[in-house]
Design a protein that fits this description.
mainly alpha, globular, 394 residues, Growth Hormone, Chain: A
């Protein structure tokens, strides 16, 4: 994605910092915090049901799916920066509603608002940051953008652990997130400016008309679909698995979740840069089987192995989508990135819609999360086949 000017160093830094904070609100807070607080939410207003917890998570991902369709379809009318602004309004409104939710229905509506907002924020974000760096640093730029999500996750894990230790609860977590979200709204309106050259053409319904013109669009969608289904089985239920099946304390489980988030920060940057050097295809071919191996370590329940597995999962959780986004950045320009990535995200969203519900149902059926994690390992392994099918040299 070529740049249209050479922004000053201060503009580049301000752009990255603002977009990373928006990404933290969109994903780290709006999606993955629910996995951190799920054990408490489950006992407080979900009647102890993992299936109901999966339903609430599914509502969030379904809204993300709808948001992806709308972002792709409206790319000609809504600029990338305005999309982020609108998304933050939905996300922060959802965070505030979650903090005050008295029952499952209100919590579900809050998660829907966060899901829709998350799509509107995240989809244009890599394009915004990639536009202010040199072409040979695109993978690194996308990775840095995604590291905002990891920062949000590690913050959520640590915040939840400390609040619980001091008599707080899951509502307090969402309250703090709401305050940070308000700061993000202010910064996005003050810092980000839409360039005329970044206006995007109509990409057809959901952006698919643009996506289908790209080389290797089918296998890259396959990679994103596999990732969308497999990763959420782990992230949505990691703390529940550690507490319910492995006997970890709530504080320990939250800390390990925070470790996962912390590694996400480095995973997006490292894998993005590695893919700049060895190629997107080979990076993805190796990443999917490595995820399966990491899940196997978590399943042992042994603290040392669980930590290693959590580190690898966090690394790949941030890295794989960064490489996928970079692949699309390589094959688009400022005019076509938005609709093409929105269309790819739709496939990702379809996978996400089903996985939390399936995972919650299986956990209730089997009385543990073991089979859920095994499913993630098997599904993610198959992603290497799609990666292998990407064009040679990509």
């Amino acid at each position: 994605m070529p740049t249209t000017s050479s922004p000053t160093r201060s503009v580049v830094i301000a752009t990255f910092a603002t977009v990373m904070l928006a990404a933290a609100v969109a994903q780290g807070f709006g999606r993955f915090t629910f996995g951190v607080v799920l054990p408490d939410v489950r006992e407080d207003i979900l009647g102890g049901s993992n299936s109901l917890g999966g339903f609430v998570a599914t509502a969030n991902t379904f809204a993300y799916l709808v948001g992806a369709l709308m972002v792709g379809s409206l790319s000609a009318k809504v600029s990338a920066v305005n999309s982020v602004r609108i998304g933050l309004l939905f996300s922060v409104g959802g965070l505030a509603a979650a903090a005050a939710a008295p029952n499952t229905a209100i919590l579900t509506l809050a998660m829907i608002s966060m899901g829709f907002g998350g799509a509107a924020i995240w989809i244009p974000s890599p394009g915004i940051t990639s536009a202010v760096v040199a072409p040979h640093l695109r993978g690194l730029a996308v990775g840095l953008t995604g590291s905002g999500v990891g920062l949000g996750i590690i913050f959520s894990g640590q915040l939840n652990g400390r609040l619980v230790a001091n008599g707080g609860g899951w509502r307090d977590v969402y309250t703090v997130h709401t305050v940070i979200g308000l700061v993000a709204i202010a910064l996005v309106f003050l810092v980000l400016r839409q360039r005329r050259s970044e206006a995007q053409p109509a990409g057809g319904f959901g952006g698919f008309a643009v996506l289908r013109t790209l080389d290797g669009w089918k296998p890259i969608i396959g990679c994103y679909f596999i990732y969308g289904f497999g990763y959420l089985l782990i992230l949505a239920f990691l703390t529940s698995r550690l507490q319910d099946d492995s006997g970890f304390s709530e504080s320990a489980a939250s800390t390990i979740f925070a470790v996962t988030g912390g590694c996400t920060i480095f995973g997006g940057v490292a894998l993005g840069r590695i893919s700049d050097i060895i190629g997107r295809r080979w990076t993805l071919v190796g990443s999917f089987p490595l995820w399966a191996a990491a899940v196997g370590l978590i399943l042992t329940g042994e603290l040392a192995l669980v930590i290693v597995g959590a580190v690898i999962v966090g690394f790949l959780f941030g890295g794989i989508p960064s490489v996928i986004a970079a692949y699309l950045v390589d094959r688009t320009d400022a005019a076509t990135y938005g609709p093409s990535y929105a269309a790819a995200t739709f496939a990702f969203g379809v996978a996400q819609v089903s996985s939390p519900q399936i995972g919650g149902f299986i956990a209730d059926w089997r009385g543990s999360f073991t089979l859920v994690f095994v499913m993630s390992a098997v599904v993610m392994s198959s992603g290497a086949l799609f990666a292998w099918a990407l064009p040679s040299g990509s």
